[in-house]
Amino acid sequence: MGAFIHSHALCESDNVGDGTRIWAFAHVLPGARIGEDCNVCDSVFIENDVVIGDRVTLKCGVQVWDGITLEDDVFVGPNVTFTNDPFPRSRQQPESFSRTVVQRGASIGGNATILPGITIGTEAMVGAGSVVTRDVPAYAIVVGNPARIKGYSNTVQMGGDLAVTSPVSSPQLREAESASGVKLVNLNKAIDMRGSLVAGDIESQIPFTPERFFVVYDVPSTELRGAHAHRQCEQFLVCLSGSVNAIVDDGVNRAEYVLDRPDLGLYMPSMTWGTQYRYSENAVLLVLASHLYDGSDYIREYGEFVELALNRARA
């Protein structure tokens, strides 16, 4: 089928995939590699050391500089600004440019600015006009200057009504639509004039014998914790004070819970990608772990986790 090159476009690259359309006043340098079925709109500039996957859309006024990779199905809105040198000087070129990667299915809104050396994760969304200063996790929705996480895309909000657009209060949560093996557990609670007490029974409520615990507190509300999985370790989360939003992901399904009372626990089996964010100012999160700390048990790259999870499901 070949590629369509508009008569007023300048495409110097021979590595342009079938079905790709390059429109008027776009300029593609010789070293660039562009996949199949892409749409390169008017006045786009693509430098040499650039790799663009299949089905990528580049709207008008985008410049893609050396060191940038756009994976399959990425959308880049009009006038998005990429950068590749953290300390640019006129006529002073660095030995190598910072590598920026926009992973599969991510979308970047118009007029956003992407600083150099950043990875924007799978299916993430960057709001229009945002200034992205650090890595964006997979499926995260970020907005503002500097960009901060405001939510997660393609994630079931665990409430009584699955059509809700934001997480709801934890008493209404259901476990049925969550990631595989994740359970929400109501712990034993006793309240009288002397105060309140919460207790959990090992095995019947907490499905493992803890070997370690840690407490997370004084977390700025704009920050996130976790963003990893464990090969063997299971975890049980209880928010003792305040509230925390917890994302669970089994490699296929993602769900978001609000932990906002101390008699509510969230069980995360091994091979669950977990992220906690939106900590309230007074949040105190207790985490019970089934294993002692082992650095080799952590999976910190989301792409590696998804591959391992799918391989385990096929086995």
TrEMBL record:
Protein name: Isomerase
Keyword terms, alphabetized: Isomerase, Repeat, Transferase
GO molecular function: isomerase activity
Pfam family, one: FdtA
Domain (Sugar 3,4-ketoisomerase QdtA cupin): residue spans on this chain: 181-308
Keyword Isomerase: yes
Domain of life: Bacteria
UniProt keyword Repeat present: yes
TM regions (residue ranges): none
InterPro entries: Hexapep, Hexapep_transf_CS, QdtA_cupin_dom, RmlC-like_jellyroll, RmlC_Cupin_sf, Trans_hexapeptide_repeat, Trimer_LpxA-like_sf
PANTHER family: ACETYLTRANSFERASE, ACYL-[ACYL-CARRIER-PROTEIN]--UDP-N-ACETYLGLUCOSAMINE O-ACYLTRANSFERASE
